[in-house]
Amino acid sequence: MIIGLDIGGTKLAGGLITPDAQLVERRERPTRAREGVDVSLGGVYALLEELAEAAKTHGTLDGVGICAPGPLDPKTGVIFNPTNMPGWVNIRLAEEVSRRLQVPCLVENDANGAGLGEAVFGAARGFSRVFYATLSTGIGTGIIFDERVYHGKNGAAGEGGHVSIDYRSPVRCNCGSIGCIEALASGSSIARRARERLSEYPQSKILSLAGTLEQITAETIARAAAGGDTLAALLIEETAEMLGAWLGSVVSLLDPDIIVLGGGVSRIGEPLFGRIREAVPRRTINPFAVNTPIVPAQLGKDVGIWGAAAVIRSR
Ligand SMILES: [Zn+2]
Known about the structure:
The protein is built from ten helices and 13 strands. The chain is an alpha/beta fold. The chain has two domains: 120 residues, Nucleotidyltransferase, domain 5, CATH 3.30.420.40; 175 residues, Nucleotidyltransferase, domain 5, CATH 3.30.420.40. The chain has a five-stranded mixed beta sheet. Strands 11-10-9-12-13 form a five-stranded mixed beta sheet, with helices on both faces. A three-stranded antiparallel beta sheet has the order 5-6-7. Strand 5 and strand 6 form a beta hairpin. Helix 3 crosses helix 10. The longest helix is centred in the last third of the chain and has 25 residues. The mean pLDDT is 96.
């Protein structure tokens, strides 16, 4: 029996996962990050203790896996200073959880964990070389080889969202670089591109579907496109072309067995995936790219729980 815990900026979600991969208990509560480290970290320990107690009715607890916002050190389980977790400075999370629950604990960053979750339990089950990307507010990625996260020398590898596809791009990324795929094709970037071009497309339904400019999301654009909206279709096409250029480079570099795409933007579905699959072989030297499956993630909203469970299971 293992505990998988997903620490997000707004909610904590945890579950108990049996050796035959059943999620038997699931708990969720607000992270209360803005109330400071004592409250938010206290909430993490309380939820873990509750799950450990529940584990007793199902069997023995063997370990705890945690997916948390980076930057963090996956080897030591220390969380450095995530922007969305005020006061979390050099938190020795794995060590403290291990001490409290008397079982091994491993901590992984959320995108790596989600990628491992998809490789062990989800869309990439049975594949050994996996490239995973969550296309959401930002773009997080994970590189998984044989059910293990590729960490690089310092634990900082797999930041595919900050691979630049345009060195002269007018768009500066949050990381300080320019033309990062995250700054061009994440959900917030698609929404920004929509806002910038609405005036050229007065017929577009995007704004009326969203309500206000600030409420435009990738989901609004998907709905507008389904209704035949020209601007929405164009935005999806551009997004697919950019993701295709990026993933083509990934295929040239890694020659993965499978590419899994999750997150809100991936819910645009076939209109996006079809175009990406068409673009990738054009954007790589790899002649086998046409056979590389590019598929939607399967674990949905509980990907963080499954990912965290995979982290401790694959140790
Ligand atoms: Zn960047």
